[in-house]
Structures are given as C-alpha cells and as structure tokens.
Amino acid sequence: MAVLHAWRAARVTPLGELNAPPRMTAVALRMAVQVVLVWSLWRGLYAQSGTTAGLSRDQAVTYAVLAVLASRLRELDQYAGRDTVLQHMHFGTIVYWYLRPLPPQRYYALRAAGEQLYGLAWALTGYVICLAAGVVEPPGSPAVAGVFTLSMLLGQWVLYYVMLVLDQLCFWTVRNTAAMLILLFAQNLLSGVYAPLWFFPDWFVTMSAFLPFQATLSVPLSLYVGRIPLSDAAFQLSVQAAWVVALALFTRLLWRRAARRVISQGG
Fold first, then answer.
1. In 55, 108, 190, 267, which residue has its Cα 20 to 30 A from 49's Cα atom?
2. Which of 222, 195, 215 lies closest to 140 in space, CA to CA?
3. Per-residue pLDDT tens for 1-30?
4. CA distance linking residue 166 with residue 160, whole number of Å
C-alpha cells in the first residue's frame, strides 16, 4: 500500500503533461527554440574573441546549452493540476495535505522526485540529440563524466530544498506571488542559468559563494566544461553535500512550524 501511495504521488504532475499531447509538443518546441537561440547567441558573442572569463567558445556554448536542458528538470506546469503550495494556500485546501495517508513532507518529496525523473527524460533526450549534432562537447574524460553526474545529482538535491523553502514561505505570507517571482529570478541568476557566473564581477561571484544557488547548477556545469578542474572537485562536492544537510535540517524545522499554522478550515 505504501508503494502504491508513493507511485500515485510521484506521477501527479507528469500525468498532467502526458495526458495533454499539445502541451508536450509545446515543451519540445520551446526547448528546441531555446537551444537554437542560446547556441546562436554564444557563438555570436565569441565570433571576435578567443577565450573570455576562462571559457573558450565551445565551453561557453556547451555550458549555455546544458543549462537550458537542465532547466527542464524542474519546469513542469504544476499550476495546471492546481497542486502547488501557493494555490492550496490561496484556496484554503492545504489542510488536505495533512489528512492524506502520506505526511505532507513525504508527499511533496515524492511528487518532486516524479517531476525530476520526468524532466530527466526530456533533458537526456535533448542532450543525446545535441551531442550527436555537435552542439555540445562530450565530457573531457570518464572521470569528468562521473564527477559531473555526482555533482549534478547533489545539485538537484540542493535545488529541491531551495524550491521547498520558497514554497514553505507561503505558510507565513498572505500574497506572495511577486515575492516568489523575485526569488525564482534570483535563483536562476545566482545559479548560472542565464549566464556563467565567471562573467560577473568578482564581488558578485564572492557573494554567490556564500549562497546555495550556485551549487545547484553552476558547479556541475563548470565541472563538465572544465572551468573547475578535477583537482577541485572534492571540495566542490563537499560544499554541495554540506548545503544538502543544512537545507534538509532547515526545511524539516519549517515543516514542523508550518503544521502549527494549518487550521481545519484550510490555509
């Protein structure tokens, strides 16, 4: 029975897309357009230069395209299923998360795992196509591929907790749509989704080093393209693991405090 509950929770959001073929077509088209535009942009930027901020043209293009593909890991449309924390708080239905057989924190984790596995299928498909087309470079060695895989796993784990913290803020705010958008923009900017952090000023890079955002994406992709050498991989992986532990403890505390704010009438 527990396995059945876990399976049903994990497939909530992916089913919303699998049962809507037009939405899947739109996702494929959007991802293809993003890859083409990013590939064209970075090749154009490097047309008159060799190496900038420690990145060659091929490294920069590979980083940017992989960032687009990695963004598919957590870009599913949760609003279509009306199962976001923000929506539940708005409609006063968050109480049902506490009446289900699964605890809310476990339900949230299982649903996020299902979303990331579904998104992983999209990202891997896009990666194979881009690799075959020569859009991205392969990893420099098997060791680099292994370290990148481990770092990417830790990065997605950190990202899960970062997104969880953003959702948990809904328990303490009445209208936080604008705040959520600002925080999501900050997360994408500081994690290197829009551009590699190496292009930003030194003070910006130093500041971001004290935040968990760059551990989600910038570190794995920098390891992949060789901007971070293998000799520094152990330190970077340990930092990512430390963020996972710290955020896990923090979100566990927030779950406990959030439960005290839920009443029988809803949010």
1. 190
2. 222
3. 566 666 667 777 777 777 777 777 888 888
4. 10
Average pLDDT, the chain: 82
**Are both 6 and 130 inside the same structural domain?**
yes
φ and ψ of 241, to 5 deg: -65, -40
How far, in whole angstroms, is CA 212 from its chain's centroid?
12
Report the 10 Å Cβ neighbour count for 110: 19
Is the torsion defined by CA of 248, 92, 180, 12 positive or negative? positive
| Number of compact structural domains in the chain | 2
Last residue of a domain, one of 91, 106, 138: 138
> With contact defined as beta carbons under 8 Å apart, do 179 and 169 qualify?
yes
- The Cα 171–Cα 259 span in angstroms is 9
Structure tokens at 135: 């859009």
Q: Do residues 31 and 122 touch, judged by C-beta distance below 8 A?
A: yes
- CB–CB of 202/195 below 8 Å? no
The CA distances from residue 148 to 44, 96, 189, 192, 205, in Å, are 27, 39, 21, 16, 21
Q: 122 with 197, same domain?
A: no
> Do 99 and 170 sit in the same domain of this protein?
no
Q: Are 233 and 151 in contact (CB under 8 A)?
A: yes
* Residue type at position 39: W
pLDDT band with cut points at 50, 70 and 90 for residue 81: low
Domain boundary among 138, 166, 184: 138
Q: Which domain holds residue 179?
A: 140-266
Q: What global pTM score does this model have?
A: 0.85
Based on the fold, state whether residues 87 and 184 are members of the same structural domain.
no
Predicted local confidence at residue 258, as pLDDT: 78
pLDDT of 185 = 83
Same domain, 169 and 93: no
Q: What is the DSSP letter of 267?
A: -
